[in-house]
Amino acid sequence: MSANELPVTGGPAAEPLHPSIHGDGPGGQDHGGEGVWARAWRTLRKNPVAIIGAVIVAVFVLVAVLAPVLAPYGGSELPGRAEVRPTMIPGPSAEYPLGLDRYGGDVLSKLIWGAQASLLIGVLSTLFGLTGGLLLGLLAGWFGKSVDFAIMRLVDLMLSVPSLLLAVSIAAIAGQSSMAVIVAIGVVQIPIFARLLRGSMLAQKGQDYVLAASALGLTRRSVTMSHVLPNSVGPVIVQATLSLATAVIEAAALSFLGLGGGEPSTAEWGRMLTAAQQELAVAPRLAILPGICIAVTALGFTLVGESLREALDPRNRTRR
Amino acid sequence: MLRLIVQRLLLLIPLLLGLSILLFGWVRALPGGPVQAMLGERYTPEAAAEIEAEMGLDQPLPVQYGKYLLRLIQGDFGTSLQSGRPVLDEFITRFPATIELTIVALVFAIGIGIPLGYVAARRSGSIIDHSAVVVSLIGVTVPVFFLAFILKYIFAVELGWFPTTGRQSATMIATHPTNFYVLDGLLTAEWDAAWDALMHLILPGIALGTIPLAIVARMTRAAVSEVQNADYVRTARAKGIKPARLRSEHILKNAMLPVVTTIGLQVGLLLSGAVLTETVFAFSGIGSFLANSVFRADYPVMQGFILLIAVVYALVNLIVDVSYGLIDPRLRRQQ
């Protein structure tokens, strides 16, 4: 019925969960014979906001994947090195459509390679946070009681530090590399996912169908994995989509603070923005272009995430 | 009410203990270990041996932690590597600047966010409604330091309406009894100094306030749309209550509860954002100092500031929780 439509709703983060959603039992099914995800997909297709978001995300992913083909120069190449003077940074020309930066890098190429860097950081860090958060949330939701208490206090602890500071302190331990940035942003997301999944699982646990399954003599493992969990992942998947937007922004913030390692001329949006700070009065385009790239990408993921949230919200179900 | 406050303050203790354990472990996990972290560039084997003896690094971890905790309780948060001054002093001198900035950001966010969200909900589908949606999208998708760049470029560099950096013009001679520059100017009747300090707060305040503005506008819009269709509002209207009173007493007051929660939660975001905004505007609050500490690997400052910021964050949320009682009498009775 809807298996072929599924991959679109969740994105890469949701894939491992699909088999269980449509696995056994009434878990992933809704009344009326139509799956929650199939209905969400149908709502999304009709929502112009979701389509705009999806188009932005698709363009961004295409540019990132096709960077080697699209970019006129390599990510670390500085083709215009000889043309840049401390007092003069050449603007757009036939050879360099968006001009050069202070290092002599081609801005267009760097923006394109920057998309790839952002996509990698965004997806990997969200996967990291999602995996960690799902594990913690699942443990808490599964065992309850003292395990739940211990995990939730850890989550409270992590949330008591403003997110950027938490990311900065983790990046300080993990060292100067882009991997450190991925881990730092990922760890910051763990408590959010954990709390979300736990809350969602607790809400499902009291539902009649779960009681019915338990009454039928199903083991706790099978009730949790095939009934409670599949019905609890909706909000988590929405959050994962929104997290992709925050990850792109936070990655830029961390590299603005000098974390992440590599050359100052690295083709990464946050890094380009940092370097442009000194030339704000001379060449504002150097700051504006990467800034717009970050904002538009974040906008794309936000629009998709928000529309998905709306489509999955049971309160909106009557609005067929 | 008092019982609630005491209860919440007691709950802070385990949180801070947990955080101190994490930060204690954090310093030990740093590349090069705690000695390297404490000494930074001044690292020599002799200095390292001295620090090691002083910190008792040869002792078992629980003993080391106990000593660290004892120092914390005595207000000793270590010494900054950049300035050589105690971390707590650095925090106390700079905190007023960040408070001033945060207040301006919150005034901007609440002052525009609540009316915008309210009108958007009342005139659903109007231009104001659409612009509220656009504003809240801009707020959550534009990186705060990029926004700070742009504001600085347009209004300070190009138009010259506002100063580009700092807390007060270098030419301004003023006394600072409290370190709140605007307040200082008012207290000492140095009006031009107060005005100058206020002008320095506007652009960073707007940059910092944009994300909270987006979130407050959005929450207000959602809360008002829900409340305005509630049965008691319909009943009140049917009873012929004056529209002004209906708006203020019935709709706005009831819609404010989730909005106040949201505002409390923004404080963490504001403190994160202050690190970036203060850096762009070279505004000497705790944020820019912390950013410098990251640049220069000043770990004692990072360790101490994170703990102190967590305390501030927790206290603000405590105040927010207590203020529910003032807004919602139902909660007052339960307490």
UniProtKB/TrEMBL annotation, chain A:
User: Which subcellular locations apply to this protein?
Assistant: Cell membrane
Q: Which residues cross the membrane?
A: 49-71, 119-142, 154-173, 179-197, 236-259, 280-304
Q: Which portions of the sequence form the region Disordered? A: 1-33
Taxonomic superkingdom: Bacteria
Q: Which UniProt keywords apply?
A: Cell membrane, Membrane, Transmembrane, Transmembrane helix, Transport
**Its membrane topology, per UniProt?**
Multi-pass membrane protein
Alphabetical list of InterPro entries matching this protein: BP-dependent_transpt_permease, MetI-like, MetI-like_sf, OppC_N
Q: Which coarse location class applies to the principal site listed for this UniProt protein?
A: membrane
Residues annotated as domain ABC transmembrane type-1: 115-305
Give the record's family classification.
Belongs to the binding-protein-dependent transport system permease family.
Name of the protein in question:
Peptide/nickel transport system permease protein
* Species of origin: Promicromonospora iranensis
Q: What is the phylogenetic placement of the source species in the record?
A: Bacteria, Bacillati, Actinomycetota, Actinomycetes, Micrococcales
Automatic annotation (TrEMBL), chain B:
Q: Which SUPFAM superfamilies match?
A: MetI-like
Q: Which UniProt keywords apply?
A: Cell membrane, Membrane, Transmembrane, Transmembrane helix, Transport
- Its membrane topology, per UniProt? Multi-pass membrane protein
Q: Does the keyword Membrane apply?
A: yes
> Where, by residue number, does the polypeptide cross the bilayer?
101-121, 133-155, 197-217, 255-284, 304-327
Report the principal subcellular site. Answer: membrane
Q: Which Pfam families match?
A: BPD_transp_1, BPD_transp_1_N
Ranges for domain ABC transmembrane type-1 = 95-324
Kindly list the places in or outside the cell where this protein is found, as annotated in its UniProt entry: Cell membrane
Identify its protein family. Belongs to the binding-protein-dependent transport system permease family.
Q: What is this protein called?
A: Peptide/nickel transport system permease protein
